[in-house]
Amino acid sequence: MIFFGRVSLNPIEVLTGTLSQKQLIILTLVRIPRVIISMCVGAALSVSGVSLQGVSRNPLVGPEILGVSAGAGFGAACAILFFEGVVPVQVFAFTFGLTAVMLTFLVSKAIKNQGNSVIVLILSGIAVSAVFSAALGIMKYVADPYEKLPEIVFWLLGSFSAVSWSDILNVVPMLVGIVTIVLLRWRVNILSLGEEEAKTLGVNYGITRTVLLMAATLATAASVACCGIISWVGLIVPHITRRIVGSDHKILIPATLSVGAVFMVVCDGLARTLYTFEVPIGIITSLVGAPVFILLLKFGDKKKW
């Protein structure tokens, strides 16, 4: 995707180093960091989604459902409005993202005796997301419409248009979260069996689940801090990959990482080339993700879920 955009780059000229100065600047300062970051974000969101689905034993769970994205977006808005230049946006995004997902599980645990635990978890996540979305709406209402509000809207729509080499630092916490999940991928299989079964097999259910939740939250929050809220990736990519490689997380998690990276780069390419102006990436992933998810629900093999 480094060859496509408003300014097309000839692959032969790129490989032979015969680009003009303008094209070289576009390639090295815009396209390459954008592709790297979009791949990392896609991998982070996808791996977070598949790990959350495994831990919760619910194929409909993702970073958005559990409230991580809404919480991280609210944290970013707080940093922009009140602490810009004082506290890094990533710190607030991670803190509130972690707070949101912990609230979801606490609420779910408190009312799980009222019905099916899977349904309760989903509804708890929707409720927590709604609270943080409402708080974010308040932030938008009081924000300066000329300076602060556009920055907040950036988080809501998601975009890679402003990323540069300076944003590579945001990749570090993404990689920490991704590597942690990949290293613990075999334990996700055990956690997906249930708490009692995990304890029987000698796995500390509480600690392992907490580490995986924090890793998924870190990866998601870092993604939000880097490019804003991007929906559907953490939900549909694991389903697509599961249809290809099966439900064994030892294989599923690395495969999801790869598919998520490619998916995000392709969506970013579409965002840059569909129209004369750049479409926010969150709109593209939603337009692609919703129909794909409907098709998976209709034609998917439920035994693999």
Provide the fold topology.
Elements: H1 11-16, H2 21-56, H3 68-82, H4 89-111, H5 117-142, H6 148-157, H7 171-183, H8 185-191, H9 195-200, H10 205-227, H11 233-245, H12 249-273, H13 281-299
Helix pairs in contact: 2-7, 2-8, 2-10, 2-11, 2-12, 3-4, 3-5, 3-6, 3-10, 4-5, 4-10, 7-10, 8-12, 11-12, 11-13, 12-13
Structure, explained:
By secondary structure, the protein is mainly α. The protein has a single domain (11-304), classed as ABC transporter involved in vitamin B12 uptake, BtuC (Orthogonal Bundle), CATH 1.10.3470. 73% of the residues lie in helices and 0% in strands. The protein contains 13 helices and no strands. It has helices at residues 11-16, 21-56, 68-82, 89-111, 117-142, 148-157, 171-183, 185-191, 195-200, 205-227, 233-245, 249-273, 281-299. Helix 2 packs antiparallel against helix 12. The longest helix has 36 residues, at 21-56. The protein is globular. 44% of the residues are buried. The mean pLDDT is 84.
Task: Summarize, please.
The chain is mainly α and 305 residues long. The protein contains 13 helices and no strands.
Note the run of SSEs as H and E.
Answer: HHHHHHHHHHHHH
User: If you average the pLDDT, what whole number results?
Assistant: 84
CATH superfamily: ABC transporter involved in vitamin B12 uptake, BtuC
**Percent of residues in β-strands:** under 5%
| Distance between the ends | 32 Å
Number of DSSP helical runs: 13
| CATH top level assignment | Mainly Alpha
> How can the largest sheet be summarized?
none
